[in-house]
Specification:
- The chain is an alpha/beta fold.
- The chain has two domains: about 10-210 and about 330-430, Aminopeptidase; about 215-320, Alpha-Beta Plaits (2-Layer Sandwich), CATH 3.30.70.360.
- The chain contains eleven helices and 16 strands.
- A hairpin with a 3-residue loop joins β1 (about 80-85) and β2.
- The longest helix has about 35 residues, at about 5-40.
- The radius of gyration is 26 Å and the shape is elongated.
- Residues about 1-20 and about 430-440 have low confidence and may be disordered.
- Bound molecules: 2-acetamido-2-deoxy-beta-D-glucopyranose (2 copies) and zinc ion (ZN) (2 copies).
- One zinc ion (ZN) binds next to loops.
């Protein structure tokens, strides 16, 4: 390599080193700047009002028409373009240059079929439906992120894709969003979930497997009904189903590797209606969880064998349905290692490094995993408990509550993770030019 090449390389190196320092400092100022903006009462009160409106009108998976309408109205007000409908009720917003790179941030929109038991001014107005998983808060914080990013849109070095997704609670809305092709070209995706038992201002996640893969099953065990006092003339499906359930419990305790976490739970048992009648059939149903796909498939196969085999022992027939259409199998949620580093840095800048926790994997599942099968993705938990005020109930409890003070953190995290990701992505591009110069 000639002298001039050395000199030019050194100059180039210094040039990029200098720009990197400058952009690094502007980069690390993004989270604080965004959080301060989100904490502004005008912004935080706006978020609280949106959340309460969604909370009052909970809608189940693929029925989120009013929620979707509200989202679009807010995006219109912010002057953000979007695609609709995607996956029936979904909305995909676009911010920034419209050019690559693309980074996505996602919120789920659906509520649960359960009655809210919290008595408060903004209680669910729909009997039997409730936002008990915090998806109303998720939508709100993604809109909050959109507002923050709109304020700083000139600084967005690429395109931020806002994903408002339907039907997370078993409906596989994420899969439908992917099938629509709307996330083509997206190189990273971030998602969060509110965590009622983690302190507000803290977050937690991990690199690699975070949540389990999940599947559901339903089985009809048929016998022959008759008088309860003359059992010899019947074939009792209640006893058969009981043995099936006991046998299913042996799959994890006797067949699974104790170090490979798995769950089989029968959560549904329906059959019979009288004290003195043996029913014709019994329906049971449940869920199974595992972290590895092979384990999962093995479990699925054995569940079917055990149900049909054990039912046959009691002279019953059984059919097993894995509900592939209504409740598609959720893959495990596996976080990308590089995005984990990115998250630790951004969340550390925003909250303080001591507020960014590592967590153990959980057997719960998330349809965010569908995105991670095709796009590097990162999912994390957002704390919202203020123990000095009250202890919060777990998600899916009829007494579930949201601490609305968590919204600025969630919104700023979404916005910072996406905007900083694009900054970093762009910073990596000039490196190619250095090589290019060198070759000249
Ligand atoms: C993805 O990029 C390709 C090539 O640039 C383009 O043709 C396509 O429209 C893009 N897809 C989306 C959804 O933006
Ligand atoms: C089970 O299925 C077989 C074959 O269809 C049928 O002959 C039998 O009657 C069924 N038994 C019960 C208990 O339903
Ligand atoms: Zn849920
Ligand atoms: Zn949820």
């Amino acid at each position: 390599m000639g002298f001039f090449r050395w000199v030019s390389l050194i100059i180039i190196f210094h040039f990029f080193a200098a720009t990197r320092v400058i952009s690094d400092s502007s980069l690390s100022s993004i989270p604080t700047k965004f959080l301060n903006f989100a904490k502004n009462p005008e912004v935080s009160n706006w978020m609280v009002a949106i959340r309460r409106k969604i909370h009052e009108n909970p809608e189940l998976g693929y029925e989120e028409f009013e929620t979707s309408k509200l989202i679009r109205a807010e995006l219109d007000k912010l002057g953000i373009s979007y695609k609709y409908p995607v996956a029936i009720t979904g909305v995909i917003g676009f911010m920034g240059t419209g050019q690559a790179p693309f980074v996505a941030i996602r919120a789920d929109m659906d509520a649960l079929p359960m009655q809210e038991m919290v008595e408060w001014e903004h209680k669910s107005k729909i009997p039997g439906k409730m936002h008990a998983c915090g998806h109303d808060a998720h939508v709100t914080m993604l809109l909050g992120a959109a507002k923050i990013l709109k304020e700083h849109e000139k600084e967005i070095q690429g395109t931020i894709v806002l994903v408002f997704q339907p039907a997370e609670e078993g409906g596989g809305g994420a899969k439908k969003i992917l099938d629509s092709g709307a996330l083509e070209n997206v190189s990273a995706i971030f998602g969060l979930h509110v965590a009622p038992n983690m302190p507000i201002g803290e977050v937690a996640s991990r690199s690699g497997p975070l949540l389990a893969g999940s599947g559901f099953f339903e089985a009809v065990i048929s016998g022959k009904g008759g008088h309860a006092a003359i059992p010899q003339h019947s074939i009792d499906p209640i006893l058969a189903a009981s043995n099936v359930i006991v046998s299913l419990q042996h799959l994890v305790s006797r067949e699974a590797d104790p170090l490979d976490s798995q769950v089989v739970t029968v959560a549904k048992f329906q059959g019979g209606g009288a004290f003195n009648v043996i029913p014709d059939s019994v329906t049971i149903g449940g869920t199974f969880r595992a972290f590895a796909k092979e384990t999962f498939l093995q479990l699925r196969q054995r569940i079917e064998q055990v149900i049909t085999g054990q039912a046959a022992v009691q002279r019953c027939n059984a059919t097993v349905d894995f509900l592939d259409e209504e409740k598609p199998f959720f893959p495990p949620t596996v976080n990308d290692g590089n995005l984990h580093k990115h998250f630790r840095k951004i969340a550390g800048d925003l909250l303080g490094v001591d507020k960014v926790n590592d967590m153990q994997p959980l057997m719960g599942s998330e349809d965010f995993a569908f995105y991670q099968e095709v796009i590097p993705g990162y999912f994390f938990m957002l704390g919202m408990e203020d123990a000095s005020v009250e202890r919060l109930q777990s998600v899916h409890s009829p007494y579930f509550k949201i601490n609305e003070d968590a919204f600025p953190y969630g919104a700023a995290l979404h916005a910072s993770l996406a905007a900083s990701y694009l900054h970093e992505f762009q910073q990596d591009v000039p490196v190619v030019e250095v090589n290019h110069h060198d070759e000249l």
